[in-house]
Amino acid sequence: MSPFLALSGISKRYGGVRALENVDFACAPGSIHAVLGENGAGKSTLIKIVSGVVQPDTGAMTLDGAPVRFPTPAAANRAGVVCIFQELSLMPDLTVADNISISDPPRRLGLIDARAQRRRAEALLARLGCEDVNPQIRVRDLPLSRRQMVEIAKALGKDPRLLILDEATSALTAADVEQVYRMLARLKEEGTAILYISHRMHEIEALADTLSVFRNGRHVETFAKGQRTNRQIVEAMIGRDIAAQYPPKPERPRPPPSLEVTDLGWAGRLKDLTFSVGPGEILGLGGLDGQGQKEVLLALFGVLKGVTGTVSVEGRPHRPGSPADARRAALALIPEDRKTEGLMLPMSVGDNLVAASFDRIAAGPFIDADRQRRAIDEAIRRLQIKVGDPGDPVSTLSGGNQQKVVIAKWLMTQPRLILLNDPTRGIDVGTKQEIYRLLRELADAGAAILFYSTDYDELIGCCDRVAVMYDGRIVRELQGDAITERAIVASALNIEQEADPAHG
Amino acid sequence: MADAITADTAPARASARPAGSGDLRLRLRQNAGLLGAVALFVLFYGLYNLYHPRGFSTQVLIQNANEILTLSLLAMAQTVPVLLGGLDLSVGAVMTLVNCLASHLVAGSPAQIALGIAACLGAGAAFGFVNGCIVVYGRIQPIIATLASGAIAMGLALFLRPKPGGKIDADLSWAMTNALSDFAETYGLFEDGKAAWFQPVAWIPVPLLVLSAFALLVWVPFRRTLTGRTIYAIGSAEGAAYMSGLPIARAKLAAFTLAGFFAGAGGLFLAIQTSTGNADIPQASTYTLNSIAAVVIGGTSLLGGTGGAIASVVGALVLRAISFNFRIFDVPPLLQPLVEGLVLLAAVSLGALRALRAKNRLELFR
């Protein structure tokens, strides 16, 4: 079949950095084409060029065989190229209906027809099985997973001939992911070309017909599904042989708890949670997205008001009234959204690194420049953050390196209890492995770790124990060999497992 | 496969639609700030009329309607740049400039008067358009661009009217500042305002009709255009608006042009009410600052994206109703700024009460 969109000889540089080098690439109608690569491999730049956000320095693009240029995202949309970006493109203060029809709302006599717009939103949301989203609600008032579905509905409304999904499922619940899969299958049958970018191998296995691997700005290879093993694919992505993805778990008896939580409750969303973690342990929080896992972390970190139950940290009662209190009790939280809660994006890498530990680098009311520089240098070395100059704005770093800055910032406070809220979301394989190793090192050094992840593989590979949550409760705690995908999924759906070796 | 299992057995997930809430409740919740402002206005204005010797009478209403008109128009003017996430510090100065211009142009034959009015409104819009060009093409922050252009407008106003003076058509002044019956009588309409069918509406003060006309014939349709929607989108998330292919430059130009237009209208009616042009610098600054206060009281976010011009009119009404009460309760003039400040602070604090309700402190920072 002749390609719908073809790129030839595309190169792009940002300053001295080579983002894409002489790339040839094509995607066919009626197929799902996965693009794989570490962060910084050039996937984002490829998508930005295809969707008109940036212009290539050299090279040509053809659409249906005819040469095209997309000077703006709107021009790409008009040609039928629609991208669902990893960074949400929704206006939080506008309603769902407004957002879905934002660029070309139905009009009557030149004025926006609110009723037609609402019906259009309802129809598009229904195609995604999101009838529960009220089109009149403001996007700001929706949870992240629903916002992502609105984003997808918005893209569908543009009648794409080439639909690009850039990590579009990373914030979704498992049920929504299934809806998106069905929608993609339907579009594929209708002859839409689909480019799919994801860091989740099992999604790619389930969906893609064709896979392309990018590394260091080059298109390494393209092959049909099933021609390579996962191991070969990962090796092609990182360009070297990989050691075991997860560090080995130490075999030893369960340590005495340093964090003890009894009957934790909050606002009807957390119900009677009882659990404990000891130094050297990694306790995973599992389950479907939105069952209260994030709230557990926020409650321990002093963000929530009206928390009931008792919490003690190293024997002392722990009732933080703010994150500042929690920090003084040697807690650290790697937050959910690094762009808004983890980093001050316009500030420098260095300023971000020391932002939680001013007390360690201050001399009286002033910041000691020498101590600050030493602390920054050490943090950059310890986490191997790839940074040109610590004075550069943190926004110039890649996603994985930004996340390392967030983690390094909190490690600098020397926390004894580390809370992580889905720290590997949207991060490349190489950085993920570094983070897994780091977590194990921190645990071995005596930290207690509470680790929420939406990726079951991660929970299985990293955690000593996994507490599976459902509807604000811990429904099951898995340990050792009992931590399997099957057990986690069954508990996550609150299904009683029949043959249950742990309790049998 | 994990995903296959979840497809049909998915448990009730966190619903985006709270149980049992209709669209009406949703709308009320989304406009809580405006509802608070309406309640404040009813409170202050009701108090004023209750204690006024001739409270709830047409004369009092006509006088008040004149007192609120200019500030209401300026509040509408200020709203549009605020929705973008900016501030327009030139609205008071543009008002003053058009006020001085009107004192030269709005007199003579009916045709001359009509042309003069059109020229005044056009001058305000043109000045706003220039503001927009500075912001869009000069890439200068609105607050500093309009601080400078406001000073320029003041300079032009002083050039037009070095000393207070000038002249406005007397019939027009009378007709525009009284009840609809007086308007009809002045221009010999509807049997000099005596027609039987006309009586039910004859009492309505003309300034209120003018204000309603600007709100319903200019703002309401504008808000439903793609350009108007884009202004909200920019204030909410400019990057997302760009990525959605929205006309950003056009919307910003339109926002400042509309601000200039409303501010010019305010200046025109100030001239019609006072029958003079006066390049009064303190007055211009006071109007600018009060316009910002009115926008905030009406519930429009200074960060942009939510609110609207009609809400700001309610904010202006609240501000004015506060000062009306000074006349009734004999607050000594020297104490008035102090009291006004305290009442204003209390009124704005009502909006901050949501902080007490939030169970998740992180939401306060979003």
TrEMBL record, chain A:
The keyword Nucleotide-binding applies. SMART domains: AAA. The keyword Secreted does not apply. CDD domains: ABC_Carb_Monos_I, ABC_Carb_Monos_II. Gene3D superfamilies: P-loop containing nucleotide triphosphate hydrolases. Pfam families: ABC_tran. GO terms for molecular function: ATP binding; ATP hydrolysis activity. Residues 5-241, 254-496 form the ABC transporter domain. Keywords: ATP-binding, Nucleotide-binding, Repeat, Sugar transport, Transport. Belongs to the ABC transporter superfamily. This is Sugar ABC transporter ATP-binding protein.
Automatic annotation (TrEMBL), chain B:
It is a multi-pass membrane protein. One of its GO terms (cellular component) is plasma membrane. InterPro entries: ABC_transp_permease. GO terms for molecular function: transmembrane transporter activity. It holds the Pfam family BPD_transp_2. Keywords: Cell membrane, Membrane, Transmembrane, Transmembrane helix. The chain crosses the membrane at residues 32-51, 71-101, 113-137, 143-160, 202-222, 253-272, 292-322, 334-356. It is found in: Cell membrane. It comes from the Bacteria. This is ABC transporter permease. It comes from Salinarimonas soli. The lineage of its organism: Bacteria, Pseudomonadati, Pseudomonadota, Alphaproteobacteria, Hyphomicrobiales.
